[in-house]
Predict the 3D structure of the following.
Amino acid sequence: MKRWLFLVLVLTAGILLAMMPAGSAVSGADPGTEEDPLVAKSYVDRLVRLQVVELEAGQVLRGEAGTEMVLRSGRAAAVVTAQGGISDLTAGQDIQHGETVPTNHLLLVPRSDGRGLKALTEVVVLVRGGVTVE
């Protein structure tokens, strides 16, 4: 009886393994396809790496959607659009146009619509994401 039960279990396990598609343990997406796209190193670096940006008084730093900024030194004012302000994640509020940006607060640019910071003095800003300086 024990041999018969063992034989049935081994045959069942063998049938189940044979029915599994080949390579099911490995991701089915081929590199470079829409399911697993290849990206340029510079693109990844821009999104992941912190940059130190120094601005002179009067210059404007505009961020793309998802850009994070931290004003480290100097004074800056928010530049926003009619669609809203810049998210101050540290204080949990929206900074509106012309308001002074607090130092050492994590700011988030929600859209690529021209929002950013205007340097009132020389400033140093830590940035993660895409920005332009005007």
About this structure: The first helix runs from residue 2 to 19.
